[in-house]
Amino acid sequence: MPPHTPPVEGLKKLFRRHTCWMLAELGHALGCALITVRRALKGVGYFRSYTHNGKWYTDAQAPRFSREGLWHYQGIGFSKYGSLTATIRELVDRSPAGLSARELAQKLQHPCHAVLTHLHKDGALDRLHLGGQFRYLATDGSLNHRQRQHAVAAEQRTATTSLSTQAAVLVLVEHIKNPGLSFEQIAAHLQRQQGLTVTAEAIQHFFQEHDLKKTPQT
User: Fold this and answer.
1) Fewer CB in a 10 Å sphere around the end CB: N or C, the chain?
2) Is residue 73 included in any domain, yes or no?
């Protein structure tokens, strides 16, 4: 970059050349000290990545954020809320039933187990153990209460409409042996012959979930 080019104008040209830069790369390209680069970044407006330990910078006009406030560019994640911890808290606060670590990782496209553990220990997030995993919740009293209610209700619905692996196998065997049986009859047969308690609703949900065709009894 020519020495007479003001840092702010130089930054704008660099961001037109490449969408994302590391701080040291910007300093080298501009021929400026890092403190000058940081000052120029404030003048331009920028976002700092929540992935890669915040090493990547992009011009404030570059991101096309999703409805959840996230933008990914060549594997680099940016958030309109800033850092990874701030973004996690925002996503959790906006979720009706809280979010699991798996759900957050899918949204963020970035692992976050360790960060969630620290946020919980620091009192920044609450959590609830459901279905063999933790769901992370907001700490605000009324919001936390609503999230807990939604999470428990959703878990109860899943429990009544889901089959274990063993139950699914037995349902399929019974269906193959007696394809004309109704869902209620399959449930009754399994209860009588196998001592297995499943609901007709759960069997119907299993057939729908796996797009299995049920031949009605004639």
Assistant:
1) C
2) no
List the domain range (segments joined by +) for residue 109: 83-159
Percentage of the residues of the chain whose pLDDT score is greater than 90: 63
Instruction: Look at the chain and report how many structural domains it folds into.
Output: 3
**DSSP one-letter string for the chain:** --TTS-HHHHHHHHHHH-SEEEHHHHHHHHT--HHHHHHHHHHH-EEE-SSGGG-EEEETTS----TTSEEEETTEEEETT-SHHHHHHHHHHH-TT-EEHHHHHHHHTS--HHHHHHHHHTTS-EEEEETTEEEEE--SHHHHHHHHHHHHHHHHHHHHH---HHHHHHHHHHHHH-TT--HHHHHHHHHHHH-----HHHHHHHHHHTT---PPP-
Is 13 part of any domain? yes
Do residues 16 and 52 share a domain? yes
Q: Has residue 124 been placed in a domain?
A: yes
Q: pLDDT confidence of 218, banded at 50, 70, 90?
A: very low
Mean pLDDT of all residues in 32-44:
93
